[in-house]
Amino acid sequence: MLQGVRHIKAFVAVARLGSFTKAAAEVNLSQPALTVQIRQLEESLGVRLFDRNKRQVVLTRAGRDLLPALQRVLAELDAVMSVSHDLAGLRRGSVSVATLPSVAAGLLPIAIRRFAADHPNIDVRVSDVVGERIIQLVKAEEVDFGIGSRVGPDRDVDVVDFLCDRMCAFFPADHPLNGRRPLLLEDVVAFPLILTARGTSVRSLVERAVEREGLEISLACEANYMSTAVGMVRAGLGVSVLPESAVDAASCENIVVEPIRTSGLVRKIGFIRKAGRSLSPAAERFAALLREVAGPPLAHFTSMEAAAKKR
Fold first, then answer.
1. Whole-model pTM?
2. Cα 159 from chain centroid?
3. Which of 7, 25, 39, 173 would you call most buried, defined as having the most Cβ atoms within 10 angstroms of its Cβ?
């Protein structure tokens, strides 16, 4: 293909300048090499492009007819190369991310602000959805990558660990659980629970832990979003089991957030992308920036736990 482009550029240069000598200098070739390229192009097209003698070079009728089309080919290729260079240089493009609402409320805005400062012409689009929907969007290639939890074995996606998010009990300050240390899952399920809806990564994690511990629960309410669950806690409807990152997703004023010390109650959050697919330069840079903002895997959520204990 590149050889064909060089031949077309040689033809357009000769047609514009009316001279093989001047055209050869412009395209940085020797005159014999330029002559060979024109001859090869003529053979490829099956028509003669120039009539030439010792004094002048003129386009044939076929050459005049082909010139506009070949000029358009070069212009379109130049446009493609310009766009390609802009994409590689992060001067234009877009990034689309499907993420858990807790990450969308916490880390993502910080990363987007920093990314926009460095790359103002790249759009970042965010879909804050539950875990199963993240996988669906990634597999359908409707987003560049997802930020969520692995919901089960799936060879169609690759998951790289990004964060660890411990499960906590959320309850009012005057609740009987306040002050109980260490707080275990069996202590929490003794009270009516407010859980996220089925299909969410948090609900699946809690249900597995309850089954593993041989416990039973009394379900008071379900909520699709963590902010709704925290609002139900504030209203005194029950105790909620949510990740520490819910502190970013909802107002937790007058709510105690206490880690549950039962083993296995840690939600692993990872970068999810379709298996065998590479990310665009913009998506790669945004993912790297998210890692920078998050810091060490447990640092973000440990700092949130400390902040919650001060309330």
1. 0.64
2. 13
3. 7
Write b or e for each residue in 263-282: b if 16 or more Cβ atoms lie within 10 A of its Cβ, otherwise e. eebbbbbbbbbbeeeeebeb
d(C-alpha 115, C-alpha 70), whole Å: 40
Q: Please tell me what DSSP assigns to residue 235.
A: T
CA dihedral 154, 158, 161, 163 (to 10 degrees): -80
d(CA 185, CA 205) in angstroms, rounded, equals 12
| Cβ partners under 8 Å of residue 270, min gap 6 | 147, 148, 149, 150, 159, 160, 161, 162, 163
Torsion of CA 5, 8, 9, 14, to 10 degrees: 160
Burial of residue 184, with CB atoms counted within 10 A of its CB: 0-12 exposed, 13-18 middle, 19 or more buried: middle
* Mode of pairing for the β-strands spanning 255-259 and 157-172: antiparallel
What is the per-residue pLDDT across 86-131, written as a single tens digit (0 to 9) for each? Answer: 556 666 688 999 998 888 888 899 999 999 998 888 889 999 887 7
| Continuous segment of H or E residues that includes residue 193 | strand 193-196
Question: What domains are there in the chain, each with its CATH number?
Answer: 2-88 (1.10.10.10), 94-309 (3.40.190.290)
Alpha carbon distances (Å) from 207 to 52, 130, 138, 198: 84, 16, 25, 10
CA gap 201, 245 in Å, rounded: 13
CB 77 within 8 A of CB 12: no
Predicted confidence (pLDDT) per residue in 223-270, tens digit: 988 888 999 999 999 999 998 888 876 678 889 999 999 988 988 889
